[in-house]
Structure formats: C-alpha cells, structure tokens
Amino acid sequence: VVPGETALAFYKAKNPTDKPVTGISTYNVIPFEAGQYFNKIQCFCFEEQRLNPQEEVDMPVFFYIDPEFVEDPKMAKVDLITLSYTFFEAKEGQKLPLPGYQ
C-alpha cells in the first residue's frame, strides 16, 4: 500500500459450528506507533455480524495510510504494517466501547 492511496482488503471469517454466531470484530495495527497513520474509510469492525452454521464470508475494509507517515522520522525503519482483527461473540445487550472514548 502506498501512503496516501486508498486500498481495499478482505478478511475471511468462517463459522465452523453447527449454530449461528453473532459477533463483533475489533482491530489492531502493528507496530502500534504506525496506528496513528492508519485510517479506515469503511470497515465491518464494531458492527455486529451474524454468521450462520458453516457460513464463510469475505468482509471488506477500505483504508489508507496517511502520507505524513513517510515524513515521520520514527517511522523510517517501518516497512511493514500489519492490520489484524479479533472476532468476539456478541452478548445480548452488551456494547463495546469505542477506542479513545470513555
């Protein structure tokens, strides 16, 4: 991904069980210092997703790396940024707090 250009990635999720599962995904950016330059335009995270038994889906994330990334001397040795997701089963009535908000 070239900083400043938009990119589209797909994450595959599969429900290997015989019962429907409703969950919420959260994301992580590694190295952590690069996270401030990662900008999601559209993402499936923090929204409930229902997966039926044995269902497999591709979930899109549309994003870009802020062009200021290349001007930050702390990022000079960073040539790989990893975006990962963790899928948690949603509990009825439970809401996840948004990052950075109390």
CATH topology: Ctag/Cox11 (Pfam 04442)
Gross geometry: elongated
Order of helices and strands: EEEEEE
Strand order of the largest sheet: 1-5-3
Mean pLDDT comes to 86
Q: Whole-number radius of gyration?
A: 16 Å
The total tally of domains equals: 1
Low-pLDDT regions = none
CATH homologous superfamily classification: Ctag/Cox11
Number of helices: 0
Oligomer: single chain
Query: CATH top level?
Result: Mainly Beta
Helix content: under 10%
Report strand %.
over 45%
Content-based structural category: mainly beta
Number of strands: 6
Query: Could you say what the CATH architecture is?
Result: Sandwich
Commentary on this structure:
The structure is a single chain. By secondary structure, the protein is mainly β. It has a single domain (5-89), classed as Ctag/Cox11 (Ctag/Cox11 (Pfam 04442), Sandwich). It has strands at residues 6-14, 21-30, 38-43, 49-51, 56-65, 82-89. It has a three-stranded antiparallel beta sheet with strand order 1-5-3, with no helix packed on it. Strands 4-2-6 form a three-stranded antiparallel beta sheet, with no helix packed on it. It starts with 5 loop residues before the first strand and ends in a 13-residue tail after the last strand. Interacts with CNNM4/ACDP4. Interacts with RANBP2. It is a single-pass membrane protein. InterPro entries: CtaG/Cox11_dom_sf (IPR023471), Cyt_c_oxidase_assmbl_CtaG (IPR007533).
